[in-house]
Design a protein that fits this description.
By secondary structure, this protein is α/β, with parallel strands linked by helices. 51% of the residues lie in helices and 14% in strands. The chain has nine helices and eight strands. It has helices at residues 16-28, 74-86, 100-106, 137-147, 159-189, 194-214, 219-226, 232-241, 245-269; strands spanning 9-12, 36-39, 51-53, 64-67, 90-93, 111-117, 126-131, 151-155. It has an eight-stranded mixed β-sheet, with helices on both faces. Strand 4 (64-67), helix 2 (74-86) and strand 5 form a beta-alpha-beta unit. It starts with 8 loop residues before the first strand and ends with a helix. 29% of the residues are buried.
Length: 270
């Protein structure tokens, strides 16, 4: 297999994350809707032209199969589709916590690539972390090309680092959504009507993120540039910076999420 765009794809499980990836691939023209077959327990809203069924189609294997079901369903999928998956040249897994060795044991045959996306991939503004210790370079090139329309694509050779990277970018959107909500609630505490506070918080975060993306300085430096000495912004930052309160909170948050990921990996090995 050369590192070229994939022509046919099977998705085993297509929930929120796999569905977001699929929609973006089709919208970007990376893959044609008619070239995709999805296996789901129940029908879901999918892009027009995508075939959806309760079992994999007959015939030759596709260029790649992607596992998008819940990690705890892995043994069920082995029993149902193990033989078909073994005939495919490439297996992409977005199963949180299921390590490459576990996948290789359950699905011998295809080259394996782990992928950890986050939900903004639906907009082409996501992050996808990739890991593949044993896959040959052409497979890695093909997967990287497939993931390119989703946003920033990062590789890591260290599976332990993959877990940490996946925690940061995979869980990060949820934590940022909480921050936006908290910023709005803080505005309400100042007397701003709830709906207006929500609009202001969301637009403020959107604009700040866009500014940080295009800046030639780190976010920490940008924060200091906004905060005039003795001004109101500086007083607010003093609260967040005191005893590194915000850093400590997010460090604890990420550590809890990573710990759960490690627990899920241990459960999948059994």
């Amino acid at each position: 297999m050369s590192g070229v765009a994939l022509q046919r794809l099977w998705l085993i499980g297509c929930g929120n994350m796999a569905g977001a990836m699929l929609s973006r691939w089709i919208d970007s023209g990376r893959i044609a809707a008619g070239a995709v077959d999805v296996v789901n327990r129940n029908d879901r809203a999918l892009p027009g032209g995508v075939r959806q069924a309760r079992t994999l189609p007959d015939g030759p294997p596709p260029d790649a199969i992607m596992l998008g079901m819940k990690p705890q369903q892995i043994d069920e999928i082995v029993a149902q589709y193990g033989d078909a998956i073994a005939r495919a040249p490439m297996l992409i897994s977005i199963l949180a916590g299921v390590e490459e060795a576990t996948l290789a044991e359950r699905f011998p045959g295809p080259a394996i690539v782990r992928a950890m996306p986050n939900l903004p991939v639906a907009l082409g503004k996501g992050v996808v972390v990739l890991h593949a210790r044993a896959a040959p370079p052409p497979v890695k090139e093909s997967v990287a090309a497939l993931m390119a329309p989703l946003g920033l694509v990062e590789w890591t050779d260290d599976e332990a680092s993959y877990g940490a990277l996946g925690t940061l970018e995979g869980c990060g959107p949820a934590f940022l959504f909480r921050f936006i909500d908290a910023l709005a609630k803080g505005g309400e505490a100042l007397g701003i009507p709830g709906d207006q506070a929500a609009r202001l918080a969301l637009a403020t975060v959107e604009g700040a993120a866009a500014m940080a993306t295009g800046a030639d300085a780190t976010p920490a430096t940008l924060a200091d540039r906004v905060a005039s000495p003795g001004g109101s912004t500086r007083e607010g930052l003093n609260v967040l910076d005191r005893d590194e309160a915000l850093v400590m909170l997010l460090t604890e948050t990420l550590a809890a999420a990573r710990k759960r990921g490690e627990e899920m990996a241990a459960e999948a090995r059994r």
